[in-house]
Amino acid sequence: MENLALLWGIIGPGVSGAIFGAGWWFWVDAVVCSAVQVSFLHYLPGIFASLAALMFNCVNKDEIGYDYYSPYGDDSEWRVKLWLFVAYVVSFVCLAGSVGLLVQDALTNKGPSVWTGVAGVLQCVLVLISGLVYWTCHSED
Amino acid sequence: MALSRSMRACLHSGRLALLAILVSGGIVLQILACALYNNWWPMLTVLMYLILPMPLIFFLGSDTSSMMSNGGDGWVNFTKFLTGASIVGSIAIPSILKHAGVIGWGALTMELSSFVVFGVAILWFLQMNGEDEYSGVF
Description:
The complex is a heterodimer.
Chain A: H1 2-32, H2 44-56, H3 77-107, H4 114-137
Helix pairs in contact in A: 1-4, 2-3, 2-4, 3-4
Chain B: H1 5-35, H2 45-51, H3 54-60, H4 74-99, H5 105-131
């Protein structure tokens, strides 16, 4: 089991990059193959999902813990938890927004096709998964 | 060791020559995919190929073990992230061009073959560079 964790620490960043790239390339495929012009509103869930993944990984994992010592006082870790909370809120809003756009694309005949909506949802899911993968595999000590 | 010193030096040069042949073959496949059909959109994949060996360029020159460890250096992780993204991009760019109808099956096949050849060359270079630490030829 320890060997598996060690291997994950080695390969994990590469896997995270692969998942991130796959998410964005699905979106590029949807935009390139779309018969109509995709408006900028449809780009926003992917952009904010990437921002949320970046927000996850701005936090040092060791700063969240009961044995963390801070010279600024005992209550300073609420800033880190607030930052993570905001990151999770942004990520879930992205997921909800992409699903909403998928429903809109499916119900209306004009506008982008269903593949654009599906690719948007896939993009959000894969980008957020890559953020979580990078979070779990890298350690800063 | 049964082999003499000159024989081992000759084998080492042979491996380097074969590695050079592999890289040249990848480049030829890449250019053929564009030139045969007079369609230079697949050259976008070259951007991904430039990012692919980034961990080698940044970290292998000094210490090969830092790439195969989880010491946690942020820059090592970031270059591994970029390598993973560029691997997926090397497969995604020809696939998207085919899906959009810009290139045909022949160019797609040559693009993916070029990626496989480059991948084999890089992995073999890693293996060759790693084992040279303990069995030096010179």
